[in-house]
């Protein structure tokens, strides 16, 4: 029992309580999480770039423009409340009211996230019952339960936390993330929640989150699809009592920025490792690009290639598929005759292509390198000094199995 | 035995001979094809847009700029001769010389195609042996054998032919195509060869082929990857003795243009139906777009979505994945609140989404519709009058199986 009394993930930082329960959106598993900040928290968010945005995403985007302090974020899994029109919007508003009444806070202090099936109206009876049940459950030991309640096709709950120094004090940051499959450059179907005890303005927090999401979640790719509900929030309770961080000149700004980047990076890697049916984590490292845009474009093209991903699953040193995917990336500068390609892992490194040509290589060493769980695909474009990293996973039988029948 | 004496596919038109043999690039299966035009043919071609181009593609592009009449096209499967540098180019030139000597024609009258593994030098001993063996084999009944010899992961040979009227005479057009998997908007790994007996200029033929390829092969998509070797050729022998067609005002121009479009369309659909591990043919019909570019972009986005394709395999009426993929397509005009989505097949039609919202639908009818081998996904953007069609296939366990281990 003491195992449960652990301030993990989103509840690691002071001033954050959480809970995770089964409300009834799913048959048996936990499907409702609540983050509660009794004394409030400054919240920033980044959202899907899909032109089809779920009702809660539209609601949250507006709420974050109007306010900077919030006391609760309610999350349900099982129903995305997307493509639900006016009814969907009304359901979000009713949910906000139900929760604010139950927690005795203002409706303006509530944010809402949903994930699950698209195009179905929320079951508001289930929502009402769930909200009543979850409100009394929140505690500073609820992070682990919350991280379970936000899962859909995830195979494991994903949470991390660590401490760092801010203005001579020990600050804490923690987070949880949900998502597997559908993870793409533009965020995919993922929900991420990060909490910290530092005191910081919404604008500063938002700038840090945007930068970190762009460098981490947006470089993680599982299958190339982006979703209607993707959202990442960061909430800062201010319990650390450091001097408020407002601009990049303020003490602690650089440390908090680095912490937000680090936790996003850790959470994004957990996402990719839990890619639907994934058996391997693959990092595509593009270097020698003339422009950063070219490095990113080549990395994403290789990381989203179904043929590269199936070759990784098959542990086949098929670098021809890598150079093919690099060649159809949209780039400004590209010279097929100077590219180098190598594969590496904890089992070694092997050069496969030099100056755009295949080199004779040791097939046994290549096989040994590809047997590892984490593989690096190294591409040197030899045209400049820019570099970018993209994370992906392999493409297995189980990917098809999981996705052929998710809805039912 | 008489079965083999059939003038099918590329040998349907007068003035074309062909052969298909086992040369030794593959272990057992046929791997070398030859198209021979004893009295020459006017040839046009379109090629991959990948920045990494195989040696034979580079050779053919140059040859077609310099000449318009050719007598032979040699094709090998098993080795793509891509990423092979100067050696690869020298090997193409040597191949051209070997074949011209064997057929007693000029080197300038020879074109070469390759498909197979990337990054390996050609085995020129095998090539030499193969060229010697195939030259005496050509006949006007060799179309079927040639269509087998160009296969890689294809499960069936793909050839068609038909007749049409040109200037009061009965003209013939025939073709063969190779490819499965890797088929994408920008042509994918495919080789296509079309022959006809009409008399037409290279410029007119090229214009027709460009237009037809853009409307057919470029709208067919299996897995989103494009290749280093994609090529489609059309050869016109002139044996029909019609007045030479040069401009669109000439008698027969419209008929030949329609025939080229029709055969490209038939060949492209055969390609998609033979998609690696495909169990269903899926046509995505986008209508009501404000611009043609938007219609094409939405169609390709839906047709390349791994999640849509696995849902088709699972016979799951998951229209949420369709609207999600439509929403992340790059479009100029898009309104999530007016879109309609329906599925149809020979078993009926069912509306799933109206004005961006899910509608209550008969799950049993939906299931019955999706059980068919050919499915239509109908998307009405309700913003204009432009429409486009994209062909794809579903994504099955076998896709992963075939591609995890192709190279070895």
UniProtKB/TrEMBL annotation, chains A, B:
<feature type="binding site">
    <location>
        <position position="403"/>
    </location>
    <ligand>
        <name>substrate</name>
    </ligand>
</feature>
<dbReference type="InterPro" id="IPR016117">
    <property type="entry name" value="ArgJ-like_dom_sf"/>
</dbReference>
<feature type="active site" description="Nucleophile">
    <location>
        <position position="189"/>
    </location>
</feature>
<dbReference type="GO" id="GO:0006526">
    <property type="term" value="P:L-arginine biosynthetic process"/>
</dbReference>
<dbReference type="InterPro" id="IPR042195">
    <property type="entry name" value="ArgJ_beta_C"/>
</dbReference>
<dbReference type="InterPro" id="IPR002813">
    <property type="entry name" value="Arg_biosynth_ArgJ"/>
</dbReference>
<keyword id="KW-0028">Amino-acid biosynthesis</keyword>
<feature type="binding site">
    <location>
        <position position="276"/>
    </location>
    <ligand>
        <name>substrate</name>
    </ligand>
</feature>
<dbReference type="GO" id="GO:0004042">
    <property type="term" value="F:L-glutamate N-acetyltransferase activity"/>
</dbReference>
<dbReference type="Pfam" id="PF01960">
    <property type="entry name" value="ArgJ"/>
</dbReference>
<comment type="subunit">
    <text>Heterotetramer of two alpha and two beta chains.</text>
</comment>
<keyword id="KW-0808">Transferase</keyword>
<feature type="site" description="Involved in the stabilization of negative charge on the oxyanion by the formation of the oxyanion hole">
    <location>
        <position position="116"/>
    </location>
</feature>
<comment type="similarity">
    <text>Belongs to the ArgJ family.</text>
</comment>
<dbReference type="GO" id="GO:0005737">
    <property type="term" value="C:cytoplasm"/>
</dbReference>
<feature type="binding site">
    <location>
        <position position="178"/>
    </location>
    <ligand>
        <name>substrate</name>
    </ligand>
</feature>
<feature type="site" description="Involved in the stabilization of negative charge on the oxyanion by the formation of the oxyanion hole">
    <location>
        <position position="115"/>
    </location>
</feature>
<comment type="pathway">
    <text>Amino-acid biosynthesis; L-arginine biosynthesis; N(2)-acetyl-L-ornithine from L-glutamate: step 1/4.</text>
</comment>
<feature type="site" description="Cleavage; by autolysis">
    <location>
        <begin position="188"/>
        <end position="189"/>
    </location>
</feature>
<feature type="binding site">
    <location>
        <position position="152"/>
    </location>
    <ligand>
        <name>substrate</name>
    </ligand>
</feature>
<dbReference type="GO" id="GO:0004358">
    <property type="term" value="F:L-glutamate N-acetyltransferase activity, acting on acetyl-L-ornithine as donor"/>
</dbReference>
<keyword id="KW-0963">Cytoplasm</keyword>
<dbReference type="GO" id="GO:0006592">
    <property type="term" value="P:ornithine biosynthetic process"/>
</dbReference>
<keyword id="KW-0511">Multifunctional enzyme</keyword>
<keyword id="KW-0068">Autocatalytic cleavage</keyword>
<feature type="binding site">
    <location>
        <position position="189"/>
    </location>
    <ligand>
        <name>substrate</name>
    </ligand>
</feature>
<protein>
    <recommendedName>
        <fullName>Arginine biosynthesis bifunctional protein ArgJ</fullName>
        <ecNumber>2.3.1.35</ecNumber>
        <ecNumber>2.3.1.1</ecNumber>
    </recommendedName>
</protein>
<keyword id="KW-0012">Acyltransferase</keyword>
<comment type="pathway">
    <text>Amino-acid biosynthesis; L-arginine biosynthesis; L-ornithine and N-acetyl-L-glutamate from L-glutamate and N(2)-acetyl-L-ornithine (cyclic): step 1/1.</text>
</comment>
<comment type="function">
    <text>Catalyzes two activities which are involved in the cyclic version of arginine biosynthesis: the synthesis of N-acetylglutamate from glutamate and acetyl-CoA as the acetyl donor, and of ornithine by transacetylation between N(2)-acetylornithine and glutamate.</text>
</comment>
<feature type="binding site">
    <location>
        <position position="408"/>
    </location>
    <ligand>
        <name>substrate</name>
    </ligand>
</feature>
<keyword id="KW-0055">Arginine biosynthesis</keyword>
